Amino acid sequence: MKDNTIFFNKKIYIEETASTVAKKEGEGPLRDYFDNVIEDDRLGQKSYELAEIKMHTATLQLLMNKAKIKQNQVDCVFCGDLMDEIVGCNFTMKNYEIPFMGIYNACATYGEGLILGGISIESGLMNRVICSTSSHFSTAERQYRFPLELGNQRTPLSQWTVTGVGATLLSTNKNRVRMDCATVGRVVDYGVKDANDMGGAMAPAVRETLLSHFKGTGRTPEYYDLILTGDLGNAGSKILKILMREDNYELEGIHNDCGSLIFNAKAQKMEQGGSGAGCSSSVFNGYIYKKMLGERYKKVLLIPTGALLSKTSALQSQSIPAIAHAVSFILEEND
Amino acid sequence: MLTYLQVFLVGGLFCVIGQILINTTKMTSARILVIFLMAGVFLETIGLYQYIESFGKAGATVPIIGFGSALAKGAIKGTLENGFLGAITAGYEAVSAGLAGVIFLAFVIGLICKSKTK
Question: What's the complex ipTM?
Fold first, then answer.
């Protein structure tokens, strides 16, 4: 491993993807790309937590159905969410008999899952794994801010936690999109304390990971058709471009952000875009993967970003450390 | 008609101040709420709130700042009548009806209604 970057010498492919989102995301510009758009984000459950669990369970089943496999053909599920003790995933995996490795890196969890899944297959010890993450606006609100029942006002700078699940089936079965390398992020803290400015807290982590990635691979931004961060949002993306310019890397025209893509900022009053563990995974598995198959993007660097704070650390006036994992996907030619 | 306008002006102005605080500062809603409450206590203590109340009527008594003034008014009256004990108990006595009513109503509404994502 050099410059925190690993190359997968085994050919690891995306065998299949699945994505589910709720009504608001389904009214956004990417609506036609998600497998499922749910009308009622409570899914008829008694609580939003149970709804998120049901959504995650259903998406994993959808993934296996699409791939035409049974659960005993999956070696392991690497998944995480934003709920305390990742209880959403714990209860989701209660419904399956697949070995389960729960992981957590906030909204960078999907990147962590892909890398761990890739390493497991690369080692030869596993053949087929699922990497997924989920998030839900109302469970995140109750946990990190206030329960909906309080009727609290949102600040104009806040991001909207995406209600969605994205799941990826990785295996060595030949397919079109290959995961060729990844850069494992490290924790970066520039001292940002404002929980309403997650983009500003996470952009430095993306910078660190990108610098390591370019050094470790010898690539430049122009190598990729798209460098896609998870949820820096509109403000955070601007900060990232400024930071990268200081290192002589120009991201303009190549960079985009899942949080910025999933909502129409003006029409849906989402000035700062979406965020959440399910943001990068649903956008990637729904929209980006289909765009890659359609050859719109042939080389994509996905960088889910995570703000590694907790409610306690925020109340104790600690700053917000962040992390970003970079995963490179290449479209292979049809033969 | 004029009364409605006065009520709207005063109540609305308090809301505008709250919105400005939300938009321009990093204060949580809890902090803003406490600031309004303390403002009500302060203005009542120095004798200014009665003018706002006489002009704004319900627009001045319904928001949390009015709650602060009622708390202070009760505490001041209680202190004059009952000394130290009055300072502690009379404030709550003055707002007890509103407080109990709100808690009970919130409980009932919570039983009947289900929350919905915005």
Answer: 0.74
